[in-house]
From TrEMBL:
Signal sequence interval, chain numbering: none
InterPro entries referenced in this protein's UniProt entry, alphabetically: Rossmann-like_a/b/a_fold (IPR014729), Universal_stress_UspA (IPR006015), UspA (IPR006016)
Domain UspA: 11-146, 153-284
PANTHER family listed in its UniProt record: STRESS RESPONSE PROTEIN NHAX, UNIVERSAL STRESS PROTEIN UP12
CDD domains named among the record's database cross-references: USP-like (cd00293)
Family: Belongs to the universal stress protein A family.
Protein name, UniProt field: UspA domain-containing protein
Length: 284
């Protein structure tokens, strides 16, 4: 199905969801930078895991934690405002972080949720945490997952496509970000090794179609635009190309078909988000 790959719209309200740990600092930097580049409002949600029984048993401890949360939120807001970002802060207590984040995203009608990803061992990076996976699966908007210590975008944006409508949404979002940041954009498709020449031709057609659609908007703005078709498992290809091309943001659709259909279904999606050397934006 052909779509227009419209570049209208964009992120108007971004929500950073954090637990205040060091692992969330990369997400904080990404959220502030993204809000500034998009001219978006930034909401900062501090998630505090607790339960009524614990709160009733240690009320003094809860008061101390509340003050610490308020101080943390004001520090984040102050840093954002110093960069010219309109910022609001809030905190939510509960037993499940993903539920709190998804509910707040729905209530605030946000366009993108930003969450952090901890450094993990090689084996542990094969999957992402259940909470992050649930946020990606249930959030009503796009979700950006930022590794611990990741820096704001400075080099290149990489977007994956298989020609589906969901991939088109990812490509349009990536193009808008390229226009906002002035960064080069690479459009990538992958074919499995055992697939026929026909499958590779379809992948190439998908990439060329995106380039054709985006070129009129990006080229006059001085944005470098190129395409690639690589052979291999989609999740491995995306991660490898992100490393080799120095991408500091990978953009993918929430669903797809053909070789990339499994990208955000089960373990494959977790490997991409868990192994990418940079933040991954899952576009809904």
């Amino acid at each position: 199905m052909d779509t227009d790959l419209s570049l209208s719209g964009g992120f108007k309200r971004i929500m950073l969801a954090t637990d205040g740990s060091d692992a969330g600092r990369g997400a904080q930097a990404q959220a502030v930078c993204l809000a500034r580049q998009c001219g978006a409002e930034l909401l900062v949600l501090r998630v505090v895991l607790t339960n009524p029984e614990y709160e009733s048993m240690v009320p003094q401890r809860m008061e101390t934690e509340t003050r610490e949360v308020e101080q943390f939120l004001e520090q984040v807001a102050d840093q954002a405002r110093k960069q010219g970002v309109d910022c609001r802060v809030m905190s939510r207590h509960g037993v499940d972080a993903s539920t709190l984040v998804v509910q707040q995203a729905e209530q605030e009608d946000v366009d993108c949720v930003v969450v952090g990803r901890r450094h993990r061992s090689d084996l542990a990076r094969l999957v992402i945490g259940d909470s992050t996976a649930r946020i990606i699966g249930h959030a009503p908007c796009s979700v950006l997952v930022a590794p611990q210590g990741s820096a704001p975008m400075r080099r290149r944006i990489l977007v994956a496509t298989d020609g589906s409508a969901h991939a088109d949404a990812a490509c349009a979002t990536a193009a808008r970000l390229a226009l906002s940041t002035g960064l080069p954009l690479t459009v990538l498709s992958a074919t499995l090794g055992e697939r026929s020449d026909e499958q590779r031709a379809r992948a190439n057609e998908a990439v060329q179609r995106v380039l054709y659609k985006l070129k009129p908007a990006l080229t006059p703005a001085g944005i470098e635009l190129d395409g690639m078709v690589e052979q291999g498992r989609p999740e491995a290809v995306i991660v490898d190309v992100a490393r080799s091309r120095g991408a500091d943001l990978v953009v993918v659709g929430s669903h797809g078909y053909t070789a990339l259909k499994r990208l955000f279904m089960g373990s494959v999606s977790r490997r991409v988000v868990g192994n990418a050397p940079c933040p991954v934006l899952v576009v809904r």
